[in-house]
Amino acid sequence: MTLVRRLARPCIAGIFISGGLDQLRAPQTKSEKADPVAQPITKALPWLPEDTETLVRVNGAVQVGAGALLALGKLPRLSALALAASLVPTTAAGHAFWSAPDGATRAAQRTQFLKNLSILGGLLLAAVDTAGDPSLAWRAKHAAKDVSRATRSARRATAAAPTRVLKAVA
């Protein structure tokens, strides 16, 4: 693992571990803001708990768990995806600057919204980071090319074989 990855992953993960612990300890402080976002999500995903306070706790647990894994470099791509998935509804619920009552609050919430959007970008980069190894898509594409080349070569060899046999007999 490069030095940049060793430093960047805990830097990104820290905010999630801290925020997730806060959600686990005091979900009621977040559930009122989360309710307008949580209800449509629970309708779309019926396997999630319907109670907003429980949903906030689940979100906090995901953030703590995935944040710790990312910080430690364990399952970094999967943990980055989990954090990205938890960040989207958290941002929509907590930083809805478009519905802020006054200009100062709107500006502060817009800044927090854009900060979270920036973190989301970092998480998406972490989710596709293969640490220098070729991605599965690259490997599959090149394996398909290798098979195609081998097939063409085998066809040519097979097509030329009867001619060689006839020449050898004559």
TrEMBL record:
The protein, known as: DoxX-like protein
Q: Which UniProt keywords apply?
A: Cell membrane, Membrane, Transmembrane, Transmembrane helix
Gene source species: Motilibacter peucedani
Query: Which Pfam families would you find in this protein's record?
Result: DoxX (PF07681)
Where does this one sit in the cell? Cell membrane
Which GO cellular component does the record give, naming just one?
plasma membrane
Q: What is its main location?
A: membrane
Would you say which domain of life the source belongs to?
A: Bacteria
* Membrane topology label: Multi-pass membrane protein
InterPro entries the UniProt entry points to: DoxX (IPR032808), DoxX-like_oxidoreductase (IPR051907)
Family assignment? Belongs to the DoxX family.
